[in-house]
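Appendix B. One record, verbatim.
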Amino acid sequence: MKICVFGAASAHINEKFIKAVEELGESLAKRGHSLVFGAGATGMMGAAARGVKRGGGYIHGVIPKFFNEFGIEIEYPHCDKVTYTETMSERKRIMEDDCDAFIITPGGVGTFEEFYEVLTLKQLGRHNKAIAIFNLDNYFDDLESFMQTAVQKKFITKSTTELYEYFNTVAEVLDYIENYSPNGNDWKKFKLGD
């Protein structure tokens, strides 16, 4: 299975997050999966790639050309395939199209945007892939609280929060993805109510 991992590019993340995502990448590879990611060498992206490489897995990195041109992000040097894009939108589209499932690891604005984009697309029936949130050190607890507030205030439906799952361990994340059974998404259910 091709698994897209989203996560921070920051080089200043606590080592406990780095080690956990390296473990995720290594386990992902040892269980026969490949990685699709944003091609970064640092942060959660670099950790996932190093883990997959250590586990003997295949890596497809996708990165905008201007990242290299302007030194925005250091590219992971050991990808099996690298796709260069003109825009961030094109980068996301390629990652979304080239995978069978998504794992969201801790990150910042870009990671939140990626999560909400794949969630929105799933809500609208544009894909029916698993979305697993790796809730390391309870990083995403406030996100879940916010989503529940949005449900209570009727900005989103309860059904929308059932399109993804939170997990605290690598094994739980991968078990969920490997055993995920998609069901038909009727956008009306998610937009108009349960």
